[in-house]
C-alpha cells in the first residue's frame, strides 16, 4: 500500500519505517528542511535502538523516502497518517491541536481519490469528528474517511512494540476504511496481534486511559516506596510480591524519582482537563499528576539529606539524565528537577548519560559539567546519584566508584 506519514518525530519516524519494513511504500513528510536532509543522509533525529539500520535498509530497498512536499506525498497515498506533535497548551493544559488541524487542511487540498486519514498523534476524544469537519469545510467533495489509530510505543523498545504489539486499536465506522486498515496491518497477522475495531471516540479514549492507568501504577509504587523507607520495608520485594498477582502484573512497579517523558505528563493533564470540562472530573488521575510533581521535587531534598558536607561547594555526581533508559529524550525528565534543586542550593553537578548529554545541554543549567564515563563522573564527588536505570550502570564496580568519591556517600533514588 502507498502510505504518507505526516511528521517525522518519534511516532511518525518509527511507524513509517516499520510500515516500510512490512513492504508498504512509505513517504515520510516534514516541514523542517534540515531534518529531512539529515534523514536522507542517514542521520537520525532521535535515538532509538535499531532505528538507523532499519531506516537504511528500507531506503536502500526503495520502500522508504523523506520529503518536504506534503501535497505530492498525499496525492499518491491511499493512507495518510497524521503524526505531528500535540504538546500541552500553555495556560490550560489541553493538548495543542494546531499542528493536527493544519495537517488536516493540507491533506484535504491534496488528497486524490478515496483516502483514509489516520490520527496517530495522541489527541483528545472528539478530535476525529473535528478533523472530519475541517476536511469537509476545506474540500467538500473530498472522498475521505477519518480514522483513529493510537500508538502504544515505548521509547527504547518502539520497533519491537510496533512489530509485536499487545493490540492494534482502530477507531472507525466506515466499512471501506476498515478494509484498508486490515490490509495495512495484515503483515502482523502472523504474530496474532489482536486487531480491535471500535468507535472512533473509544479509540481516542483508550490511548489516554492506558497512559493514565500506567502513570497511576508508577505513582502508587513510588508512594509505597516512601512508606517502606519509614517502616523498614523493601519496596523491591513488596513490588515483586504484589506483581506476582496476575491481576496486577509486575510491569510499571519499579520505584523511582517519578515519571517523565513526552507522554505521561501531558496525557494525564489533557485527560483531566477533558474530564473537568465534561463535568466528570477524574480525581484519581488529578492526584496522580500532583503526587508525581511533588515526588520529583522531593528527590533533590533526599540528595541534600544524604550529603555529609554542606551543600554549597559540594559536588554531586549524577548518572543518568534521560527520563528512561535507551532513549535520548529529556522531556520532563526527573533529572531536570533534581539537578536544578541542587544547583539552587549551590551544589556543583557533574553528570553522565550514555546517549542523552547532547539533549541534556539544551535543558539543564549551564553550570553542569559533563563527564566521559561513570567513573570519571564520580571522581572527587561528595555524593553519587543514579537517576536513570541504564543497563550500563547495572554492573558498575562499586568499590571502584567508592574509591573515586571524595566523601563516599552513594544513594540510588527510589
From TrEMBL:
Residues that, per the record, bind NAD(+): 30, 35, 86, 122, 155, 266, 331
GO molecular function annotations of the record: NAD binding; UDP-glucose 6-dehydrogenase activity
Highest taxon above the source species: Bacteria
EC assignment: 1.1.1.22
Residues given in the record as substrate binding sites: 152-155, 207, 252-256, 260, 324
Domain UDP-glucose/GDP-mannose dehydrogenase C-terminal: start-end pairs: 317-412
GO biological process: polysaccharide biosynthetic process
UniProt pathway annotation: Nucleotide-sugar biosynthesis; UDP-alpha-D-glucuronate biosynthesis; UDP-alpha-D-glucuronate from UDP-alpha-D-glucose: step 1/1
Keyword flag NAD: yes
Top EC class, one word: oxidoreductase
This protein's UniProt keywords: NAD, Oxidoreductase
Catalytic residues (positions): 263 (nucleophile)
Reaction catalyzed: UDP-alpha-D-glucose + 2 NAD(+) + H2O = UDP-alpha-D-glucuronate + 2 NADH + 3 H(+)
Family the entry assigns: Belongs to the UDP-glucose/GDP-mannose dehydrogenase family.
Name assigned to this protein: UDP-glucose 6-dehydrogenase
Gene encoding the protein: ugdH
